[in-house]
Amino acid sequence: MNINHLSASNIDQQHIWHPYSAIGAGHSVFHVASADGCILKLQDGRELIDGMASWWSVIHGYNNPQINEALKKQLDLMSHVMFGGLTHDPAIKLATKLIEITPPTLETVFFSDSGSVAVEVAMKMAIQYWASKNLPQKQHFISARNGYHGDTLGTMSVCDPVTGMHSLFSKTLTQQYFIPAPQTPFGESCDESELTDLRQTLENHHHDISAIIIEPIVQGAGGMRFYSADYLQKTRALADEFGVLLIFDEIATGFGRTGKLFACEHTSITPDIMCIGKALTGGYMTLAATLTTRDISETISSGDPGIFMHGPTFMANPLACTAALVSTTLLLESPWEKRIDNIEQQLKQGLEQCITLPNVQQVRVLGGIGVVELNESVDMRTIQPLFVEQGVWIRPFGKLVYVMPPYIIKDAQLKTLCDAIYHVISAL
Ligand SMILES: *Cc1c(COP(=O)(O)O)cnc(C)c1O
Asked: Are residues 85 and 223 in the same domain?
């Protein structure tokens, strides 16, 4: 088929899938030509302040000179090489750094290409761990409602069953155990009764359960909900009591977004397995990682078949590892805590005005995340162009209008984002 005669926007509409989108007219997208700092430059010349950091990832802004330079150097050395039987400096240096900055109990790293795959790997590791301990029936997972862990079939099985449309995939998705979403707000201690369902599920089914998987402190794409650190402490205790592993999915929360380098640092506990992704490369390349304890990696390595059963073609891609190493170094050398604290203060002030609007249910802010929850779901086709008219890039979903800007955003840009949210919501 020759589609050369079509305009760029027609090719896009008729032939290219976008995330959670459909093919065909009415699914218009904005054509971006380049990006720099916190600004997206559209092909028609308009400039938008980026409120999304390209889904949590672009923490240093676009077109960062240090990451650019490091990537150009690495490109001339080696852009890719297979990781089976071979290794390289970018992987070794990045693994060293990740082991240094994540909780001390996490000692081994599995690199993969995307967050979803990092979660798949975590789930497979949990299953293989128990199989190596002669408990091969422990293959199910406990997950919280409103959770989001990825789009592949394995990860979908632990996403919220309603928003994840489990009914549509019922014949192929593994049935997992769901507990209610954590309710106690962040900063408060939670009552033991909130864990009743979890305790009950563990009591009844721990023989079948390999791990509890949860996004610590912030449930992201499943509702942008912030919850009590104490809930996680109590979850850890129950996991230990009933002999199941605890997996933290820090793909959204990692690298400073909640005000701690990793969200688990809001607690005094550590997970057995931790997934990171998104901001890992500063949004430059696709890369994710699954970290585990020595106990888990040694148990898997000494069990049957004596190897971990996963190995992506582009595992530990040298360009991606280089971007991640430089991005992480930049972050740690920057005054990131001060920046997140400032973003939090600005978002609290800037979004406060929204609470007076009749269609707004709640405004909540944590670290570099600001959320305005509406009473009803937005119509993306009307709301998206309104934000672009205000000169900002904000992409709501469902009832949620939210921002998580690059950490380098200026106060004036942040104010523009908050004012745009107020104006657009009041015009709905
Ligand atoms: C985005 C996300 C994922 C999936 O990552 P992809 O790179 O999109 O596959 C998994 N878990 C959480 C918490 C996420 O935010």
From this structure: yes
Cβ burial, residue 56 (10 Å; 0-12/13-18/19+): buried
Instruction: Show the domain range for 311.
Output: 67-333
210's tokens: 């390999």
Cβ(164) – ligand 1 distance below 6 Å: no
Distance 150 CA to ligand 1 centre (A): 5
Ligand 1 pocket, residue 216 CB under 6 Å: no
pLDDT at 25: 79
Place 178 in a pLDDT band, splitting at 50, 70 and 90: very high
Ligand 1 test: best mutation among 20, 112, 119, 123, most atoms within 8 Å of CB? Answer: 119
282 and 145 within one domain: yes
Distance CA 229, CA 158 (A): 21
| CATH number of 395's domain | 3.90.1150.10
* Overall pTM surpassing 0.85 (yes/no): yes
Give buried/exposed letters for 233-251 (b at 16+ CB in 10 A, else e).
ebbbebbeebebbbbbbbb
Ligand 1 centroid, distance to 251 Cα (angstroms): 6
User: What is the mean pLDDT of the segment spanning 20-43?
Assistant: 93
pLDDT at residue 26 in the model: 77
